[in-house]
Each structure stands twice: as structure tokens, then as C-alpha cells.
Amino acid sequence: KAAKLLLEQRAEVIRDAITNRSFETHFQPIVDLRSGRAVGVEALSRFGQLPVRAPDKWFAEAANVGLGVELELSALESALEQLHLLPPGIYLSLNASIETMMTDEFQEAIGAVASERIMLELTEHTKVGDFVQLAQRIEHLRSKGVRVAVDDAGAGYSGLAHILNLKPDVIKL
Known about the structure:
Strand order of the largest sheet: 1-2-3-4-5-6
């Protein structure tokens, strides 16, 4: 009973973070090393709400209480709302789990912006159950101009199977 109560309390904290967007979106520059020029930015979420902890802990906790997709979508929407503030020619790199990327809400959010300015970084935290369906979703995004990256290649579940099946435009090591 105590474990269930603790789980419910943790879920409430995550729901509050989603509802109130009690996080900030920071943009980390992506620089072309040859020219020294910024070519893109990676959107990163930073949480100021208690309990204070690293962003990966927030997203892991959200996944543990069944709110991972909702928190990711909220973070993605926050970043996408700021796309118009980026200089022309600068792309926006977004981190998303396979579960989030497979949702209709994600597809709609990406479809509502200048998709050719989006780099989708698929995170390595979960195993891909159906590469065929995933490849179809990715091809749909690519047809709109979205580029795909495999994040932290070699870590978690983003090994050789990810790279061979997804044919990413970028591999992050």
C-alpha cells in the first residue's frame, strides 16, 4: 500500500510538471567544426521544480509512472514553440523516445512546423519492438524534410540494429 501511494505521489509531481510546464527549454549550439559556425541547436529541458534532479531522472521517473510520452510531448511542444526565434538556416534537434515518436500527437506537432529545420534524435532507452512500423513513421517524417539521428550510438538499445534498420542521417557517439 505504501509503495502504491509513493508511486501516485511521484505521478502527481510529474503531472504537475506537465500541466504547469515547470521546466525550461535551453538550446545547446551545434557547431560545424570546420567553419566554427553554429548550424543547429539541441533542445534540452531543465527542471527547476522539486525534487531537484537531472533531466534524465525526470524523464525516467515519468516513464516509470506511465507519463513518459506526455512529459516528452510537453517538452517537444515547448521547444517547437520557440523554433521561430532561431535564426534562418539553424535547425532544431529534438530528443524523442521511440514510444513518443510513434504517437499521432508527435506526428502532428512535427507536421505543424517547418519540418526541414528539424533533426529528430531517437533516444536509446527502449527496445524497438517493430522496426517495420518505426521505419514507416520515419520515412513519413523524412518525406516532410525531417532528418534523423541515433542518439548515443552504442549505448542502451541504440546499437547496430538501430543504425542498420533506421539508416540515420547522423550518428551521435
